[in-house]
## 1
Amino acid sequence: MSIDSVVGFTIREIRTGKGWYAMDLADQVPISRSYLSEIEHGHRLPSIGMLADIAEALGMEVSELWYAIYKNLGGKR
């Protein structure tokens, strides 16, 4: 799985775990629903700043989001 796919998968996994629709997260960031969809499907890789905005919208520290991405890449700890 590519890094783009893992980043998108992780964001989608956290979002759906909160019971949010994509529109809910897109409105919180704010970004367009289509841009978020491209990220979640691994077609676009967000900038570090965008990842920080997404983490904040999800109510987490950016380091927590990075760690979740790391774990989904197969990192062990």
## 2
Amino acid sequence: MINVMRKTILLIFTLLVSTLTYSQWTTLSSGTTNFLSSVYFPNANTGYVSGDSGTILKTSNAGTKWTALVSGTSNYLASVYFTSVDTGYIVGAGGIILKTSNGGASWTKLPSGTDNNLVSVCFTDKQTGYAVGDSGTIIKTINGGTLWTTLSSGTTNDLTSIYFTGADIGYTVGFYGTIIKTANAGKDWTVLSSGTFASTYAFLSDYFKNADTGYIAGGIIHGDGAIWMTVDGGATWTAESAASDYYFYSIFFTNADTGFAIGEAGTVMKSYDGGTVWDTLSNGTVNDLHSIFFTDQNTAYLVGALGTILKTSNGGGYSLGLNDLSTKSNTLIIYPNPSSTIVTIESTLKLDQGQLSILDLTGQVVMTKQVTQPRTKLDISDLPNGVYFVRLINNGNVEEGKILKQ
């Protein structure tokens, strides 16, 4: 009788996990098959998307409905950024810059001073903004876009992404391992070293949690996708364990620990530990994904090829690896499982100083403990009933498992 009951519980557990695997991302109707390049939400309900052939889309109800706006151009529109719910900027091919002050009802073309393609735009306040693009182009405005000034970048390589951590410190990245940094609001730019094989790197997106800790997503030219990390303000960079056959086009962190990287062929990867380990998420598309934006810890939007817009309301769900632990050699031994109180977790690793974490289905850490022994007991009686993941990281090695709390 006990065995039958246990088998029944485990069957329910398996069905629950399998069902959740395919319900983490919802495909939204964009109304277009044009390539979508960038997404930005100035608040939880209002969002804008830019793309090919002058495409601009807007939602006022958190993605339920998207409306095509009149851009007045057929240029490729690469990047969108809003300083308020009504005021926003879009940059694109041929040096085009568009501005709206009425929530996208109309767009004004601003003089950029360049014919080079612009591919990324950001603002540090309502008046001060930057855009970067081909041939090392960096331009700046201090009056809300009325006038743009060309800055000396120190490179002729194409630049792909710009990110400021505050009013003064900013980073921009590009092809052939290009990383440049300013510490004085763009007055001066310093070319940083990205490593021995820099000339083989295609840097496509950067994101910084603070002035010192940041990430670059992209790949090896004619090779695989890759993610790099710095913890010393760009002085040194290390490649992270985000192995992928496909380029990453965009990277975004929702807090100090949780990050996402997206790219070719529907690739979505998530880190729960500040970028040390990256897992693949299921999302239901094989279309290239080009831009990601979170409006809160759990709600995100992805846009990409063929008019693709995806939304998650639970932080993207959990990884494919955690969904199929039976095929992994690094599976933790957990018993009793299911459990309502105490569980024993056994590792096959030789531990020095391991980090043991319990995560819920959204990937949020609900318990954590430093461990030095291969066998650990945890009291999970205070956790709500449900499915939880267990992860042990020790010297770069990872073991995983899952628990059903009942």
